[in-house]
């Protein structure tokens, strides 16, 4: 192995059941007035999480203002609006409370609260302006309520520009959270289908960062452990959402996957899903990834089988008894078992997606997120990508 990498992971993570209450005593809050960003669904209010956060912040001498319009596939318009709310109220840091969409939005809002122009001026792919934010970002505190994106442990934020159907991931050193709280007790309220979608998102983050050409020893170790934990505990959490062992193991696997995203990176599987949900925002990210996964990874395993047996072993597949030429496809066997074990039944056609749209998705995936093709371990042409979509569709 040729060891050649950099390691930067500045986020302080407080992990464990009941840790939300440490908001009232922690000395690591980075300001005195917080913009608390939540989703539009009302879940953070319904389950009392928002009231708890506001109460704990107040006990720690911090005032708060709430912004509550974030959608499951967040859009740039809400980034701009949230930033205006932060600026108008004199907020000096941002708290993201919720799932990956909310936490991503809180990062982007933190950037725009202190920088001129429009959010898309700073995006480096697609139609983005490619500028560097001159003023960095407000400090960010991330409180995750799902075990899905791992965004509490990485700098990335994924936002959609609705008028051009561009869903693009972006980030920099300023968009790492200063502080993240991972409390599995906040995840008990997540319904089974969302548990499945978010769990599979974390699973694919782990798989992709292991396969990426920029993998490194720490990301490899964490990715394989996360894959093993998700394979074992995701079906359990879906069947019994109150199982705290399963929720805790999934929460840790998700945070591991986020750290992997800081040290390595996702590959073009994510480029392809972003194209789908950019055009069809009702497709949850983890759902889209899962619908594409067997087709995508089958293609990749045939083109570049090298690391796939390790992934299969992490899933508990008995790889070493297979003929060597079949070992890479053992991962596909394990993947299909996991998809069955979580009761996943969604199909692209369920969301009104027509086969005639698939080439548009393929072209969009290269335009908006083409950089992830550069670190995919095998070259994929436009025709290859169209074929992957077609196999997933049928």
Topology, element by element:
Layout: E1 12-15, E2 33-39, H1 43-46, H2 49-59, E3 63-70, H3 76-88, E4 93-98, H4 100-112, E5 140-144, E6 157-161, E7 166-170, E8 179-182, H5 192-211, H6 217-239, H7 244-263, H8 268-279, H9 285-303, H10 308-314, H11 330-341, H12 358-369, H13 371-374, H14 382-393
Parallel strand pairs: 1-8, 2-3, 2-4, 4-5, 5-8
Antiparallel strand pairs: 6-7
Helix pairs in contact: 3-4, 5-6, 5-7, 5-9, 6-7, 8-9, 8-12, 9-11, 9-14, 10-11, 12-14
Q: Keywords for this structure?
A:
2 domains; alpha/beta; two-stranded antiparallel sheet; Dehydroquinate synthase-like, alpha domain; Rossmann fold; 8 strands; 394 residues; 6-stranded parallel sheet; 11% strand
């Amino acid at each position: 192995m040729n060891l050649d990498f950099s390691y930067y992971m500045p986020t302080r993570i407080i992990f464990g059941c009941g840790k939300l209450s440490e908001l009232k005593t922690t000395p690591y809050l980075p300001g005195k007035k917080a913009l608390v960003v939540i989703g539009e669904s009302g879940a953070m209010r319904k389950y009392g999480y928002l009231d708890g956060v506001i109460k704990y912040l107040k006990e720690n001498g911090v005032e708060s203002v709430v912004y509550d319009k974030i959608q499951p596939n967040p859009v740039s318009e809400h980034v701009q609006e949230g930033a205006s709310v932060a600026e108008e109220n004199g907020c000096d840091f941002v708290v993201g409370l919720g799932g990956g969409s909310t936490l991503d939005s809180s990062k982007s809002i933190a950037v725009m609260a202190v920088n001129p122009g429009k959010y898309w001026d700073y995006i480096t792919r697609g139609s983005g302006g490619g500028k560097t934010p001159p003023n960095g970002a407000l400090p960010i505190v991330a409180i995750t309520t799902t075990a899905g994106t791992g965004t509490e442990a990485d700098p990335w934020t994924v936002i959609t520009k609705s008028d051009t159907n561009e869903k693009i991931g972006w980030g920099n050193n300023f968009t790492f959270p200063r502080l993240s709280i991972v409390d599995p007790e906040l995840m008990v309220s997540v319904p089974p289908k969302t548990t499945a979608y978010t769990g599979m998102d974390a699973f694919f983050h782990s798989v992709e960062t292991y396969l990426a050409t920029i993998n490194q020893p720490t990301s490899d170790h964490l990715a394989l452990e996360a894959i093993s934990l998700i394979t074992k505990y995701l079906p359990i959490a879906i069947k019994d959402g109150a199982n705290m062992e399963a929720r805790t193991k999934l929460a840790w696997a998700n945070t591991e996957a986020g750290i992997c995203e800081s040290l390595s990176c996702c590959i073009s599987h994510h480029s392809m899903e972003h194209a789908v949900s950019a055009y069809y925002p009702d497709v949850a990210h983890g759902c889209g990834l899962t619908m594409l996964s067997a087709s995508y990874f089958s293609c990749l395993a045939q083109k570049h089988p090298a690391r796939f047996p390790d992934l299969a072993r992490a899933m508990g597949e008995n790889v070493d008894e297979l003929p060597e030429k079949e070992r890479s496809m053992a991962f596909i066997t394990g993947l299909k078992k996991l998809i069955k074990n979580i009761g996943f039944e969604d199909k692209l056609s369920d969301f009104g997606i027509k086969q005639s749209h698939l080439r548009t998705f393929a072209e969009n995936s290269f335009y908006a997120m083409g950089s992830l093709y550069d670190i995919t371990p095998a070259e994929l042409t436009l025709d290859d990508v169209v074929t992957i979509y077609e196999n997933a569709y049928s």
